[in-house]
Amino acid sequence: VVLSWHGRKKRVLEQKIEENGKVTWGIFDKNGGPVTIVILIFVGLCAVSTIFSWQSASTHPHLARQEQSGKGPVLKFARELSSQKETQTTGNSQKPESVEPKIEDSQKLALLQKQSKIAEELLSPVVDAVGGGMTPADALMILNGKFSDIAVADQPREVLKWVASVFPKKKWAQVTSFGLSGLVITDLLKKLDLLNDASIMTIDTLHLFPETYQLIEEAKDHFDITELKVYRNKHVASRDDFERQYGAKLWKADAPLYDYITKVEPTRRGLEQLGIVAWITGRRRSQGGEREHLQLLEIDEADGRLKINPLANWDFDEVYKAVKWNNLPYNPLVDKGYASIGDVHSTQRVAGGEGERAGRWKGQNRTECGMHLSARHESAEVLAQRADRVRSGYQWEQGAVVRAKEIGIIQVTEEDFKRTVLGAGAPVVLEIYSPWCPHCRNFEPTFNLLAGTLAPKTHAIFARMDGYQNSVPPEAAKLFPVPDVPSLFVYAGGKAVQYTGVSQDY
């Protein structure tokens, strides 16, 4: 293109020479020369940059594959920026909005590069163990191949011995919920005399079965675990306290947020505080779902740590037999049909023919524990913001419930909605609100004044329902549409009227 442009300009200049006998501007004279040189240098730099970019992609084929599959850092960064632009803030939505922190694009890229560098530094022992001169991903590919050649029954033992030989004492941990797989791994660590080399860590969601809490105490005695590291939500110490701070049904209202504050954040905080480089899980391929293609060794997508799955290739029967053969304590719920045990609200018995984890989160179209999917959900910053807003809302709610009760306003839940609203013997004035909503909090004095003034004169029942964690029953959903909060209804004679701000509504 440049040479063609040069030729055309030269012909024009030659024509001017013939016509005027002089030249005022030329491509190769002292006026035009610098422009030509700058253009040629720019074209040259572009060519060199293209060559080096092509060489970089060919030198690091795993990065190219990641980008092509949509999992590479460049596309990940692009998706983050895209999602940030698409985030919409609605003040009255029933789900508390959280706006992505406004970080400049260059800052985000720098943060991404820093995380990548940290991941390489954390996993440098893995690379060194293989021989060096490669990325952690390539090193893990080699190691997974080597361990896969070992008999399945011996893989857990060999993997754990390798971990202990590569990582410093107390810089690797077993994160266990004391399920069958976790118990087998802890037993192996003890038999290999490695239990004191590892940090043993568990997450208390405050929603576990009583049998699980009892098992934890039995396991501590059986394995002689003197320093069990227990992490939970940093703002609460009991389930009652949790429900006061976040509501009784957060797990139902906002599953990603519940997972974050009960599992993801405590896990990440524990790993950080203990300085953990690699952590052991009890996940297995036979559990299906997200775990079907599990590797013995993998890089955690969330923070670049090494995640170790020693029992990845075992099935349920092999794990159960190992527990029984070694006379290990285990959760009695297993023998009652609970093949996989988590929180009370998300665990059910497994029916005949169902998968091992079919009893977890039934009807919710999910198969995985939140702590293993943190990188695929909303960013930690967004979830932390939402958690703070919800907690602030329920702190306000504690006082609002007391003030409402003093005036005679009743509290309604979805469980008693049919009885207290649809079956009431008098007109019902119902407010549906969300504790975190500032408009709802501002409306509280008005609603209380309305109740205090009209209830004695009209004999109407004034009621309020937390619409964030309670839903209108299906049979009444058409009568009580809730597009936003606060919403105010009057129900009488089988009919409901929603107040829209016009007095003629009534």
What this model shows, in words?
This protein is an alpha/beta fold and 506 residues long. The chain has 17 helices and 11 strands. A 6-stranded mixed β-sheet has the order 3-2-1-4-6-5. A 5-stranded mixed β-sheet has the order 7-9-8-10-11. Strand 8, helix 17 and strand 9 form a beta-alpha-beta unit. The protein is elongated and about 85 Å long.
Mean pLDDT: 80
The H-and-E topology, N to C, reads as: HHHHHHHHEHEHEHHHEEEHHEHEHEEE
Number of strands: 11
Fraction in helix: 40-55%
What structural category arises from helix and sheet content? alpha/beta
Beta-strand share of residues: 5-15%
- What is the 3D form? elongated
Task: Enumerate the spans where pLDDT stays under 50 for 5 or more consecutive residues.
Answer: 1-6, 12-30, 51-91, 98-104, 107-116
**Widest sheet: strand ordering:** 3-2-1-4-6-5
Number of helices, where a helix is a run of at least 4 consecutive DSSP H or I residues: 17
Main sheet attributes: strand count, strand direction, barrel closure? 6 strands, mixed
Looking at the chains present, what oligomeric state does this protein adopt? single chain
Rounded to the nearest angstrom, the radius of gyration is 32 Å
N-to-C span: 77 Å
